[in-house]
Write a structure and sequence with these properties.
Length: about 210
């Protein structure tokens, strides 16, 4: 009984070319993302078994696997929607994403400063990781996070709204070791309408942590 399922891609494998090759998208979605979905489901089953048998010898590993695979599933599910072949540029008022543009300017000083920070955070990941733009509910502002693997180095409660996958599987077939070039190219396929929708939804939920009520 699977709890999580692999979402369909919102476009063809080739839709993001030339920024991302069809082969990368195919493998990344059908193999890597599918692996995280399976991993999350398998881990939940193993935890259920541990509860039933009251056998807790593997609890540390299981909790780590749950965080890894579930976070991988969540980030990839956002990643596909964050991109479009018609994307790129800056979020602008005339495109109906003015609230997001204002929030970026208020939180980072300017779009250029935000872009520099997210680019740097993604491109300088050590090993496997992500650059993430997230809504932080206590301050009501946006922050950039440099995520280790899928789950480390994040502030609890923040909601990812724009995610750059910086794992080698996201670019190596095409960009080889040039991670900086890949991250720079990523800006050409950002779907600002999708990011703006996620910003509005995160803000709407408000201070769900019930801190500083
Ligand atoms: Mn990935």
């Amino acid at each position: 009984m699977a709890i999580y399922t692999l979402p369909e891609l919102p476009y063809d494998y080739a839709a993001l070319q030339p920024v991302i090759d069809a082969k990368i998208i195919e493998l990344h979605h059908d193999k890597h993302h599918a692996g995280y979905v399976k991993g999350a489901n398998d881990t939940l089953e193993q935890l259920a078994e541990a509860r039933d048998k009251e056998q807790w010898g593997s609890i540390n590993g299981l909790e780590k696997n749950l965080a890894f695979h579930l976070s991988g599933h969540i980030l990839h599910s956002i990643y596909w929607q964050n991109m479009t072949g018609d994307g790129g540029g800056e979020p602008l008022d005339k495109d109906g994403v003015g609230e997001l543009a204002d929030a970026i300017a208020e939180s980072f000083g300017s779009f250029a400063k935000f872009k520099a920070q997210l680019s740097k955070a993604a491109a300088t990941t050590q090993g496997s990781g992500w650059g993430v733009l997230a809504y932080e509910p206590i301050s009501g502002k946006l922050i950039v996070e440099q995520v280790y693997d899928h789950q480390g180095n994040v502030g609890q409660g923040s909601t990812p709204i724009l995610v750059f996958d910086a794992w080698e599987h996201a670019f190596y077939l095409q960009y080889k070791n040039q991670k900086v070039d890949f991250i720079e190219a990523m800006w050409q396929v950002v779907n600002w309408q999708d990011v703006a929708k996620r910003y509005a939804a995160a803000k709407e939920r408000g201070n769900a942590l019930l801190l500083n009520p």
